[in-house]
Amino acid sequence: MTDQPPIGEILVQADELKERVRALGRQISADYTGRDLLLVGVLKGAMFFLADLMRSIDGPCEVDFMAVASYGSATDSSGVVRILKDLDTPIEGRNVLIVEDIVDSGLTLQYLLRNLGARDPGSLEVCALLTKPERLVAEVPIRYTGFEIPNRFAIGYGLDHAERWRNLPYVAALADEGC
Ligand code: IMP
Ligand code: MG
Q1: Could you tell me the residue ranges of all domains in the chain?
Q2: Mutation to probe ligand 1, out of 102, 142, 145, 151 (largest number of atoms < 8 A from CB)
Q3: The pLDDT of residue 106 is above 90
Q4: Ligand 1 mean position to 59 CA, how many Å?
Q5: pLDDT tens digits for 40-77?
Q6: Domain 35-71+85-174 has CATH 3.30.70.270
Q7: In what order do the strands lie in the sheet with 7-12?
Q8: Which of 58, 72, 98, 174 could pair with 78 as two cysteines, CB 3.0-4.6 Å apart?
Q9: Terminal CA-to-CA distance of the chain, rounded, Å?
Q10: DSSP-assigned beta bridge partners for residue 161
Q11: 144 confidence band (pLDDT: 50, 70, 90)
Q12: Per-residue pLDDT, 79
């Protein structure tokens, strides 16, 4: 039935998310002590992760957003990325930390790293809530990872399927993967 919630097995529970995001915040706070930090959230999937992560970081930090669309099928990106919303300010000389919801093939992130890297930031690192190591095709340096998950399509805590289920407080697999 199409009206049944397509929520399958829970991959990361809400309390595990909370604990891990706090730990990442502590680690980032320590690593960036005394340095200016700009978090770049990738819309829309990273919205809850970014909001929780930023509140776990001590000391001054700023936030900006990018929105990108990657061409491809519903569940596979092609690596051809279009910028829907760019940063508000230049990042030359700044310490930039890209905050992503999930790295699947890594192609979107590879594009973002090249694009932002060309703007001469002082440093450029990546913090991804989730990675799917089995699916990775691009070589992307991920400095901070929340959880490695199996090769399942994930929904919840910001991640969507056809724009829905971002509001789940946990990360689950999409039940019926016939998408
Ligand atoms: P990639 O280019 O294949 O690494 O895919 C990157 C983007 O596709 C992510 O930033 C997500 O927005 C989306 N994506 C990839 N896998 C999933 C998933 O399992 N659930 C929801 N969105 C996903
Ligand atoms: Mg994303």
Answers
A1: 35-71+85-174
A2: 102
A3: yes
A4: 30
A5: 999 999 999 999 999 999 999 999 999 998 876 666 77
A6: no
A7: 7-12, 171-174, 154-155
A8: 72
A9: 14
A10: 164
A11: very high
A12: 75
